[in-house]
Amino acid sequence: MITIKKNRSEVKVLFDRKEGEYFVGRTEYDSPEVDNEVLVAAKDHFVRLGDFALVEITDAEEYDLFGKIII
Prior knowledge:
Layout: H1 4-7, E1 10-19, E2 22-27, E3 37-41, E4 52-60, E5 64-69
């Protein structure tokens, strides 16, 4: 299980898609459909799919990380 303490940091995220209320991406070190995903609330931020953004990780679940865009 991913712990928030271990993953509370800033990561560079590539956004692949939008699902429901979230933009979904992965860190520059993760493989699609293998590693965890990073979700950012679409109501708070807008990102273009295919772009990288710096994201602060604010929460974590078993397989997903949640964050907010810094830049």
